[in-house]
């Protein structure tokens, strides 16, 4: 009778040992698979972050370039406005100067004509 009890325990022991080995095997396989999944997820996340980073940085650079371009355009417009004012002032002064030169070439201005007449009158009185 003791033999049969021992034999039953031996079978139970082997079955328990196989069961523990199977549990350990499934636990080990699950752990390895989760590590592989984590590694794969990490690689995918890095790729997504890299792609998003490129797009984000490109958009930021584009926005900064657009702002700088708008700023430079405003500065250019101000320079053109100032240049236009200076050109207009120069044109007016140049026309006035040419008018004075033309008058002198055509016999002088009224003031110079009056001075010339006074000089002639002085000469006649002497």
Oligomer: single chain
Provide the β-strand percentage band. Answer: under 5%
Low-confidence spans = none
What class do helices, strands and sheet pairing give?
mainly alpha
User: What distance separates the N and C termini?
Assistant: 176 Å
Q: State the total count of DSSP E strands.
A: 0
Q: Report helical residue fraction.
A: over 70%
Largest sheet features:
none
Task: Indicate how many domains the architecture comprises.
Answer: 1
Radius of gyration: 52 Å
Shape field: rod-shaped
Average pLDDT taken over every residue:
84
Query: Helix count, per DSSP?
Result: 2
Element string (H = helix, E = strand):
HH
Structure overview:
With 126 residues, the protein is mainly alpha-helical. Helix content is 95%, strand content 0%. It has 2 helices and no strands. The protein has helices spanning 2-105, 110-125. The longest helix has 104 residues, at 2-105.
């Amino acid at each position: 009778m003791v033999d049969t009890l021992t034999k039953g325990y031996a079978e139970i022991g082997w079955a328990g040992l196989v069961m523990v080995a199977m549990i350990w095997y499934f636990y080990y396989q699950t752990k390895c698979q989760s590590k592989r999944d984590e590694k794969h997820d990490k690689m995918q996340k890095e790729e997504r972050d890299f792609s998003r980073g490129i797009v984000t940085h490109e958009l930021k650079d584009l926005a900064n370039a657009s702002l700088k371009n708008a700023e430079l355009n405003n500065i250019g417009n101000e320079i053109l406005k100032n240049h236009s004012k200076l050109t207009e002032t120069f044109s007016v002064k140049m026309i006035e100067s040419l008018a004075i030169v033309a008058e002198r070439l055509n016999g002088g201005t009224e003031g110079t004509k009056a001075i010339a007449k006074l000089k002639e009158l002085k000469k006649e009185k002497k």
